[in-house]
Specification:
Helices cover about 30% and strands about 20% of the residues. It has about 400 residues and is an alpha+beta fold. The strands form 3 sheets. An 8-stranded antiparallel beta sheet has the order 3-2-1-13-12-11-10-9, sandwiched between helices. It has a 3-stranded antiparallel beta sheet with strand order 4-8-5. Strand 1 and strand 2 form a beta hairpin. The radius of gyration is 20 Å and the shape is globular.
Amino acid sequence: MRLGQLCTSALSALCIAALPAADAQERAPSPATPDAWSAVRAHFERRCHELGVVGAGLVFVRGAEIAEHAVHGFADRASERRVDERTIFHWASCTKTLTAIAVLQLRDRGALRLEQPIVELLPELRAVHSAHGPIAAVTLRHLLTHSAGFRAGTWPWGGDQPWQPFEPTEWIQLVAMLPYTQLEFAPGTRYSYSNPGIVFLGRALEVASGEPYESYLEKNLLRPLGLTQSYFDRTPFHLQRHRSHGYDGSGNGARDLGPDFDTGITVSNSGWNAPLGDLARYLAFLLGALPPESDAMQVLSRSTLAEMWQPALPTGVAGERIGLGFFVHELAGTPCPTHTGTQRGFCSFFYVHPASGTAVAAAFNTSAAAPLVAELRTLCQQQLSLPLAKPR
């Protein structure tokens, strides 16, 4: 679908604000060829069918416009409610990029430092065991780059039974288990993806700002960015008719996990729910394509975003390094920040490529789609973004 098709009266709330004509002329890149989009869309639809994906959506952004859009299947299989432009997906670990932006906001506003020991903000972490030097060596920068030495999983003490909470719901639960937690390597020496590390960042954000995580994010990110249908965890009543269910498995045999669940104390890891329209606006912000005077462009400076996208440690995936809260690929010799998410049946990814002024986001409501995340992202980078890249 073209932008004009998406901007009907019913969907106008999802569309990215138009740039002034002169500004749009300067910023908008040449269109990708129709053949390139057709190839991407055909691959998306074919693989969704092959993998038994219940529902999915894909959006291609150029500058400040939704250039193309595709949907597949059902948001709710039982009621036969199909995926459309307003369907709300769960974005799982893509939430971590919002958390990282909020932390850098607070840094830029003088409320914290990236080289600050995390124990200055969270003294409870002094209970963590470390055979690799003092726990005070762990900094906020280490947490942002997944190099602090903490384990991968937030809660390895259960949560796999239907009667148990999906995630721990209170900070005190994590605090109680800190004496049973250890650093697995010396901080800063290597990359190892860590969910609890981002939980600690979310808690540090609350301490530094004096506000609950969700309140701070609503006021300082979601609202100024214009992400009007984004929220954390439980769906507001007026949006429930748009919320996708999650499905575990494949095809008709996939188990319906329902629409909502509580990420609890791990909200800073994975609590974000949003339609593709909100993702498109977020991507336009990351591209720097919104009007300079807009509220959205006050969220974080371009220089700070560039700092976040400086590749640091290798992740072990070919061509990928970790930045500050974002993974960074290289495309045409320029950074291509990205993140993925997988949780409770939902799989997702986004990337932005500032050098071509393009970005893509996709979400799937079925666990069987997991192999398609990296596959489709690479295809989009090669077919939609690389041909538009400006020479360095």
